[in-house]
Write a structure and sequence with these properties.
Strand content: 15-25%
Largest sheet: 7 strands, parallel
CATH class: Alpha Beta
Strand order of the largest sheet: 6-4-5-1-2-3-7
Helix content: 25-40%
CATH superfamily: SPOUT methyltransferase, trefoil knot domain
Number of helices: 7
Distance between the termini: 31 Å
Order of helices and strands: HEHEHEHEEHEHHE
CATH topology: Alpha/beta knot
Oligomer: single chain
Length: 208
């Protein structure tokens, strides 16, 4: 799909990025308080090629820090939920298994069956995931850690998680997790519109 209003370099950049995009995995930010953390996780998700990020704001209002985002929100889709049940129901409807990181889990990240579409929940600063989320999750896992500190900062934990998922996809062949060609073409069109006309007209954020 070629657009005369894009430079050749920008066109090639969009095509290359779209071919590497995935919806097989997604992150769910459950009631984060700090806009720095929200923005850092969104930016890291985009860098690692995830197309969708889901954000729950039942207790804490969704806020971002544009300086941390570095424009990353323009290139993915963010779904904002006012109720955690709505988010859980929608993700399960889309076929995702729900996985929750927990320092109390026995299963390691490497032991998860990553061949199945998985939504990884990250819990709020200080409190972690809500008890309803913990009860309804399909998997509980622990990130690798060998020190005495109990847990990682949530945005750092997201980076560790995404790096692991990226290695898994590379080992399996990243093309197995890519979007269908029709979705890639639609995504390039969306990126073109956001690039030319801005997020105000083609908003990457939708409220559920």
């Amino acid at each position: 799909m070629l657009f005369s209003d894009l430079t050749e370099r920008r066109q090639q950049l969009f095509e290359r990025a779209a071919a590497l995009r995935t919806k097989h995995f997604c992150l769910v930010l459950e009631d984060f308080y700090d806009p720095h953390n929200i923005s850092a996780v969104i930016r890291t998700s985009e860098v690692f090629g995830l197309q969708n990020v889901h954000i729950i704001e039942e207790d804490n209002t969704y806020r971002v820090n544009k300086a941390i985002l570095k424009g990353s929100l323009k290139w993915l889709n963010a779904f904002i939920y006012s109720k955690r049940k709505t988010a859980m129901d929608e993700l399960k409807k889309q076929g995702y298994r729900i996985a929750v990181a927990s320092t109390h889990a026995n299963k390691t990240l490497k032991e998860l069956d990553l061949s199945k579409p998985t939504a990884f929940y990250l819990g709020a600063e200080f409190r972690g995931n809500h008890k309803d989320t913990l009860e309804q999750a399909d998997e509980h896992f622990i990130l690798p850690q060998y020190g005495l500190t109990e847990s990682l900062n949530v945005s750092v934990a997201a980076g560790v998680l995404l790096a692991h998922l990226d290695m898994y996809m590379q080992e399996q062949g990243r093309e197995k997790f890519s979007l269908p060609k029709s979705e890639q073409d639609a995504l390039i069109l969306e990126w073109r519109n956001r690039h030319l006309f801005g997020n105000e007209r083609f908003n990457p954020v939708s409220f559920q």
